[in-house]
């Protein structure tokens, strides 16, 4: 099958397996077929990979805060004995988690855009295709919000542990 014939199959809405629509989707009135191709399997794979990375980052934030809480349990008990409220300890751990998450999101966005720009420069030199990494896609805002929510949820368990710190038991152990 020539590339012209394959392109004809795609334009008629059938793939090489005879399934109607592009990537197995039926033609829907009002939706341009080029939109379905653009949002096809490759984009879904990248989005799934991004979700896995966000969940791994959330787990990392959880582990970091949990270990920090275990190491600082004495300091937290001293803070409570000096008058810090349980709510203050809870908010301090939550804020620490949000700071870690925010720094991770900002660093990840910067590195991602830098990598996209470097890839664009390579593609322009090799294939005469211009891609820029300095375009902010609206979907990135949802990614940022999702990452912040995952970071906040990851910090919640260590924050509750700090809230429930038994001052007498921790101070007696030292």
List the helices and strands and how they pair.
Elements: H1 3-12, H2 33-38, H3 41-71, H4 73-81, H5 86-127, H6 139-163, H7 167-173
The overall strand count is: 0
Largest sheet report: none
- What oligomeric state do the depicted chains represent? single chain
The rounded Rg comes to 25 Å
* Helix and strand sequence: HHHHHHH
Alpha plus pi helix count: 7
Helix content: over 70%
Report strand %.
Answer: under 5%
Average predicted local confidence, pLDDT? 80
Number of domains: 2
What would you say about this model in short?
The protein is an all-alpha fold and 174 residues long. 75% of the residues lie in helices and 0% in strands. The N and C termini lie far apart (77 Å).
Written overview of the protein:
The chain has 7 helices and no strands. The chain is mainly α. Helix 3 runs antiparallel to helix 5 and helix 3 runs parallel beside helix 6. The longest helix has 42 residues.
List the keywords.
elongated, single chain, mainly alpha, 174 residues, 2 domains
């Amino acid at each position: 099958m020539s590339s012209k014939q394959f392109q004809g199959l795609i334009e008629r809405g059938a793939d090489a397996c005879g399934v109607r629509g592009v990537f197995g989707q039926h033609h829907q009135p009002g939706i341009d077929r080029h939109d379905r191709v653009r949002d096809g399997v490759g984009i879904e794979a990248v989005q799934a990979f991004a979700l896995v990375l966000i969940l791994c980052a959330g787990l990392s934030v959880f582990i970091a805060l949990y270990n920090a809480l275990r190491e600082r349990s004495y300091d937290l008990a001293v803070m409570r004995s000096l008058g810090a409220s349980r709510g203050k300890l809870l908010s301090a751990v939550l804020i620490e988690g949000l700071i870690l998450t925010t720094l991770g999101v900002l660093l990840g966005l910067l590195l991602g855009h830098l990598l996209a720009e470097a890839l664009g420069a390579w593609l322009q030199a090799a294939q005469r295709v211009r891609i820029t990494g300095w375009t902010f896609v609206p979907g990135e805002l949802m990614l940022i919000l999702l990452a912040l929510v995952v970071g906040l949820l990851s910090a919640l368990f260590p924050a509750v542990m700090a809230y429930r710190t038994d001052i007498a038991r921790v101070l007696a152990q030292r």
